[in-house]
Amino acid sequence: MNFRLFITAWLAGLPGVFAVALLALPMLVAGRSLPVPLWVVQLANAAQGMVLLAVAVLTGVLLAPKVKLAAPVLEAIAAAKPVAGAFRPQLVPGLVGGIVGAGLLGLFAHYSPEALALLHAKVAMPAIVRLLYGGITEELLVRWGLMTMLVWLFWRVFQGGTGTPSRLVVFLAIGVSAIAFGLGHLPAAVALVGHLPVSLVLYIVLANAVFGVVAGWLYWRFGLEAAMVAHTTAHVLLLMVSP
């Protein structure tokens, strides 16, 4: 196992874990009676996040080379090699993907259910959380961890673990991980507003899944950091045009 890559990627995702525990969690539980002090809940949340991140990073480190997926920048850092050459081919695709993703999310927002207004009225997630957790940590969890595992699993099932994963295998993994990415946004929404109408559930899942497809394709074609650039860029653009 590439232990240095594991440590590098895990450390890259930790700021997002801490941002959620310190900044997002208090907003999610505001006004609720907790059985323990808030700092205990935050500590438990951070510990859980660190463990989940470690599992996802380990999955990517072990399986990505087997299915021809990569995180070129993180790999260059871990190997003490120049980063610019690894990052340059991913920058433009990532920026374009972020613009496309933000446009798709904006289009979804135009047709969003009225219940979404209540969700926005409840809380505006801090920008630092969206950038650090969304842009980096989520990509490590969903693309580097989950999508890589799915590509490897489908490759083993449909191709017997031989050759390069086919487009069908990769597209299937991109689709399943994108849906999982959309579903992963539901718990926070439930914590904020309680019961969610079906229209809002479908909106949250589908809107995020569409972006998940964009990020998954970028990861496959260019590298994990292209997905990170796209995710961060989309958040920056959406922050610029929304309150």
TrEMBL record:
- GO biological-process terms attached to the record: proteolysis
Q: Which InterPro entries match?
A: Rce1/LyrA-like_dom
Keywords, ordered alphabetically:
Hydrolase, Membrane, Protease, Transmembrane, Transmembrane helix
Domain CAAX prenyl protease 2/Lysostaphin resistance protein A-like: start-end pairs: 125-235
* Ranges annotated as spanning the membrane: 43-64, 91-109, 140-158, 170-193, 200-220
* EC number assigned by the record: 3.4.-.-
Q: Does the keyword Membrane apply?
A: yes
Gene Ontology molecular functions: peptidase activity
Locate the coiled-coil region(s) and give their ranges.
none
Please indicate if the UniProt record lists Transmembrane as a keyword: yes
Output the Pfam families linked to this UniProt entry: Rce1-like
Enzyme class, spelled out: hydrolase
Can you say what this protein is called? CPBP family glutamic-type intramembrane protease
Query: What is the species of this protein?
Result: Crenobacter oryzisoli
Q: What is the lineage of its organism?
A: Bacteria, Pseudomonadati, Pseudomonadota, Betaproteobacteria, Neisseriales
